[in-house]
Amino acid sequence: MATTADFRNGLIIEFNGDLYSIVEFQHVKPGKGNAFVRTRLRSLKSGKILPNTFPAGVKINIQRVERRPMQYLYNDGTDYFFMNAESFEQMQIAKEMINAPEFLKEGENVEIMYHTDTESVLSCELPTTVILEVTYTEPGEKGNTATNAMKEATLETGAFIRVPLFINIGDKIKVNTVESAYSERVKA
Predict the structure, then answer these.
(1) What would the mean pLDDT of 124-135 be, rounded to a whole number?
(2) DSSP letters for 45-90
(3) What is the sign of the dihedral through the CA atoms of 163, 164, 170 and 172?
(4) Angle formed at CA 46 by CA 45 and CA 47, multiple of 5 degrees
(5) Which one of 45, 62, 79 terminates a domain?
């Protein structure tokens, strides 16, 4: 058993019968009254953020998790199939457990988080940025690059994203998977 003094960002704890990751925390010692810890917890099942306040020194149950690198193979609409590059073991994960499934392309490396006590899959995380090719977008006009105007583009995975006007069909772009947003154009 640990206490609130052991809190750190990314720590996985058991709270109300569910597993949560600490997104942020703040130790507070008011001038009057007892100290407490204000936290924001992310549910590993639903992904929802829950604000919670713990009294200082309260016992918490830390859960062990393990991150394993896997390679994306294909999907059948509802389930996504991954392979361990070392053991060649294959597994399937539901679409809801992946943080940005619309940006997955074949051969992409991801990290799958396991709960070590139960050997169950908690989530699948893509890298922060991925490089994808633009398969369709309206042509941009010369001289329109001075403004921050954006247009719709279709990527090779079928995802839609807003890109600057100077992006054309066939360009490779870096996409931020956390924000589902355009980052930059990749030079060939």
Answers:
(1) 92
(2) TT--EEEEEEETT-EEEE--EEEEEEEEEEE-SSEEEEE-TTT--E
(3) negative
(4) 105
(5) 62
* Residue-number span of the structural domain to which 92 is assigned: 65-125
SS3 96: helix
One domain, residues 55 and 42: yes
Place of tokens 């394993």: 68
Co-location of 79 and 40 in the same domain: no
Distances (CA, A) of 59 to 16, 45, 49, 114: 13, 23, 21, 24
Q: Could you read off the pLDDT of 41-96 as tens digits, one per residue? A: 988 877 788 999 999 989 999 999 888 999 999 998 889 999 988 889 999 998 88
Look at residues 144, 178, 109, 108 and name the one whose alpha carbon lies nearest to residue 163.
144
Helix residue ranges per DSSP H, the chain:
none
Residue with tokens 């619309």: 102
With contact defined as beta carbons under 8 Å apart, do 20 and 51 qualify?
Answer: no
Count up the domains in the chain and report the number.
3
Residue ending a domain, choose from 92, 107, 125: 125
